[in-house]
Amino acid sequence: MRPMPASETANSFTLPESFLEVIDPRGDPREIRVDRSPFLIGRGADTGNHLQLEDKRISRVCAAIVYSEGEFRLEDRGQRLGIFVNEKKIGSQPMSDGDVITFGATNSIQLVFHRNRAERSLPRILSSLEQAASLEGGSRDLRQLSLLLEATSLLQSRMPLEEVLGAMVDRAITITNADRGLLLEADGSPQMRPLFARQSGSLPLALVDMKPSQTAITHALAKRSSVVEGDVELAETDLKFAQSIVGQHLRAVIAIPLLSHPAGHAISQSPTSSAGELLGVLYLDSRRPAAFSGLERQILDALALEAASVLDNTRLLKKDRERQRLEREVAIAREIQQALLPKSFRIQPHVEVTGINQSCLEVGGDYFDLIELENGRTAFLIADVAGKGLGAALVTALLQGTFSALTLGQEPARVITHINRFLCAHPDVGRPATLFFGILDANGNLEYVNAGHPLPLLVHGNQVQSVFAAESCPVGMFEEEKFKTSFSKLEPSDTLVLFTDGISDAASPERDRFGFERLERVVAQNASATLEGLQAAILRAVETFTCGEPQADDITLLMVRYIGVP
Questions:
Q1: Model-level pTM?
Q2: Strand ranges (DSSP E) for 188-329?
Q3: pLDDT digits (tens, 9 = 90+) for 301-350
């Protein structure tokens, strides 16, 4: 057993308070206190995990959070698929408030790391405000502080977001004694999107009736700090000559940019002192001049800090939900794609078939199919669409539909010509495909078209040959390409081994290719095996050659063995 570092002997009495928010797609969110160091994370309890996650894709010895020298650090301690913080794979990394931890699997458990709110800047500000208000003995300042506490309580509540932000604007109006308030959200466009407009008395205000001073907002964004003018008549900037100020007879104007706080940066006492991403602007104005004390400005900063935190968390939540939605859709696409592939092959008196598809991503661009035709004929197809992912997967679905519809009564060249013309007529698809399409009858007669596909292997006795040369280019490249049906004769026990270049191009850690010659040797050594045995031998040889390197391309095998006429 390795000696335990001093950093791993901390207990709950020496650790600053922190916790993990556990987001499980199969259950309700929960919070777990990080109360010791190391804090062990993994599947099951038999390895001493303090946080046990029920997902078979998560290793039993998975990760640990270690506290040392004033920081929490996440360590990968054996997660098979890797540990990711904010979608970046890590080995060991300091943790910041709001960091999202994932385990390399889609639609799996996520953890969100949180530092104790007692260590964040707002309570420090509240503490200093309480002291200042007590020293000044001002009942108005104490009232302002009370309003701030109400507002921050609302912002941290589980009320609907619209109600929370609307109430926050109301409190800001009351704190500043303003006439109107507006919350703007940055959405990537030059003009920010208005979310809420309110007027004094906690009354709603139509957005069309709220015309904020763009000059004040522009100044605040340019400086990335608050613009607080109690009397624009006394302002030294061009603010007092701005059209919106003059036209609306405004005297007091406040514009506070709301900025996110980048991971790894401590949150300061000012909502605008770190160069985070712009989230929005809190804007307030009045037709009466106002005098803002230093305490009131701190109160505004504290309120804006919390508002920025709410907007930032909402933005991150939206991104996470969008990512989860995309992951669910991709998972559904994978399920559909796999369902479209043949799951079993009906036993035929004259032919045996087996096949397998392994996508390198959730969905892929490889495809194979088998259709039994009349008069004892068997049509089969293997294809490799250029590229990977959803775009390639959509084209494979198109190929399957076309193949299924056109094989009835059609000879191979006409089927492939139709597919080619369709793809060329839709240039936006931009996905050429190599394919081998054949029809085998009960007497061993084979009609086929090889459109740019890797040469299938023919196992005849103990010999392995490449006799099905590509006589045309891939489909989807040239509309007038001429496709030719070729003919061959199979003898009983002859086996066709069809594959995509995910096999031949599989790379070793030294970046060597598996290649055709190595494939031929594996096939020759297993020529007398069953089709399932031959398929397993090829996949095993590729896995051994790559030494666990990530699969770089889709892998598909299709094997057709002619048995002969009974």
A1: 0.49
A2: 193-199, 203-204, 227-229, 252-259, 278-286
A3: 777 777 777 777 777 777 777 777 777 766 666 666 666 667 667 767 88
CATH number at residue 42: 2.60.200.20
The span from the CA of 327 to the CA of 322, in Å, is 8
- Distance in angstroms between the alpha carbons of the first and the last residue of the chain: 66
Look at residues 529, 532, 459 and name the one whose alpha carbon lies nearest to residue 497.
Answer: 459
DSSP designation for 7: G
Provide the 3-class DSSP secondary structure of residue 469. Answer: coil
Q: Is 229 helix (H, G, I), strand (E, B) or coil?
A: strand
Residue 296 in contact with residue 284, Cβ under 8 Å? no
Q: Which of 97, 116, 135 is the endpoint of a domain?
A: 116
Sheet holding 351-358, edge to edge: 351-358, 555-562, 495-499, 457-460, 463-465
Amino acid at 263: A
Measured CA to CA in angstroms, residue 36 lies from 12, 306, 345, 440, 559 at distances of 5, 29, 56, 68, 56
Buried b (16+ CB within 10 A) or exposed e, 103-125: bebbebbbbbbbbeeeebbbeeb
Quick check: 206 and 257 in contact, CB under 8 A?
no
- How many domains does the chain divide into? 3
